[in-house]
Each structure stands twice: as structure tokens, then as C-alpha cells.
Design goal:
Blueprint: E1 2-5, H1 8-11, E2 17-36, E3 47-67, H2 72-83, E4 89-98, E5 101-110, H3 123-132, E6 134-135, E7 138-139, H4 140-153, H5 159-172
Antiparallel strand pairs: 1-3, 2-3, 2-4, 4-5, 6-7
Helix pairs in contact: 3-5, 4-5
EC number: 4.3.2.7
Protein name: glutathione-specific gamma-glutamylcyclotransferase
Pfam family, one: ChaC
Length: 173
């Protein structure tokens, strides 16, 4: 069983990992396009979390995790509890490319028809929301900074997250 991580799964998979590889999912892009009312915001002040948003000619670099043998059922249950908390994500399999290999990975993509979907927000608006929101798993800015730092550590460039990280630092200084 392989799982594709593009946000917090990169730095906190929450399941036993037998192998991890840098992977590319085509036809999707990483985007702060989901309002978070649980983990990184509240109903009164929603935060933003990352999702895979479909986009023609786009791609998302992330991490493919191979789940440790024997842990597949527990991993699936844990991922569903974590990711399907509000039904804004859809559980699916996407093909990923790792070097010369291609295979399907379980992942969670945004439902563009869900009320929490907010694709197309300007980066400045995203920064202002992220700078101030806090949810059950802590400040929204920590989620952004952890993800951006781990992507950088892996050598995965994401100019939007890099810009957002600096802008949120400026807003919260």
C-alpha cells in the first residue's frame, strides 16, 4: 500500500513507513484551497489547509510512502479518521511517478463542490488567514511553516509556499 503525501503527511505521516520516495502526481497542484474548521481553524475563524486541486497541465511534487507490511488496515482507518473529518476531501488513488517507476497511491483530494472549497484565493488573502487562524492541532502558521520547511529539506521547490511562509512571518512579527 502506497500513500501520497503533499502536506502534513510529509512531516507527520502517522503510520509505519517501510519506504519513502519523492513522487510526482500529474494533473494536480498543491493549494491552500480548503477552509479548515477543525485542525487549523474554527467555524468562527476558519484557517486554510492544503489539498490537491485538479489542474490541467499541473503537477505536484510530494512523497510516496509505502506502508509497512501488516499495517495497511490500521493505516487506512487512521487516515480516514484524520483526513475525512469534514468530507471536504475525497479518498482516491492517483498515479505517481518516482524516477522510472509509476504506481498508484492512495491520497486525499479536494471536493470542489464542497462548502469548504476556496480555490483561487489570492496569496495575500491566504497569508492573512493563515497568520491568524488556530484550530485543534494548533496555529495555522505552524502547519504552513512545517510543510514549507520539510519540502525545502527534501529539495522540493514550491514558490507559493515559500512566499506564503515569508509573508506570514512578516505579518506575525
Amino acid at each position: 500500500m502506497w500513500v501520497f503525501g503533499y502536506g502534513s503527511l510529509i512531516w507527520h505521516p502517522g503510520f509505519p513507513v517501510a519506504e519513502q520516495r519523492i513522487a510526482r502526481a500529474e494533473g494536480w497542484h498543491r493549494s491552500f484551497c480548503m477552509r479548515s474548521i477543525h485542525h487549523r481553524g474554527s467555524e468562527a475563524e476558519p484557517g486554510l489547509v492544503l489539498a490537491l486541486d485538479r489542474a490541467e497541465d499541473a503537477y505536484c511534487m510530494g512523497v510516496a510512502f509505502r506502508v509497512a507490511e501488516g499495517a495497511e488496515a490500521d493505516t487506512l482507518a487512521a487516515l480516514r479518521e484524520r483526513e475525512l473529518i469534514s468530507s471536504a476531501y475525497l479518498e482516491t488513488h492517483v498515479p505517481v511517478h518516482c524516477g522510472g517507476d509509476s504506481f498508484d497511491c492512495l491520497t486525499y483530494v479536494i471536493d470542489p463542490d464542497h462548502i469548504q472549497y476556496c480555490g483561487g484565493l489570492a496569496l495575500e488573502e491566504q497569508a492573512r488567514i493563515i497568520a491568524h487562524a488556530t484550530g485543534g492541532r494548533g496555529p495555522n502558521r505552524d502547519y504552513l511553516w512545517n510543510t514549507a520547511q520539510h519540502l525545502a529539506d527534501l529539495g522540493i521547490a514550491d514558490p507559493d509556499l515559500e512566499w506564503l511562509s515569508q509573508r506570514v512571518r512578516d505579518l506575525t512579527a
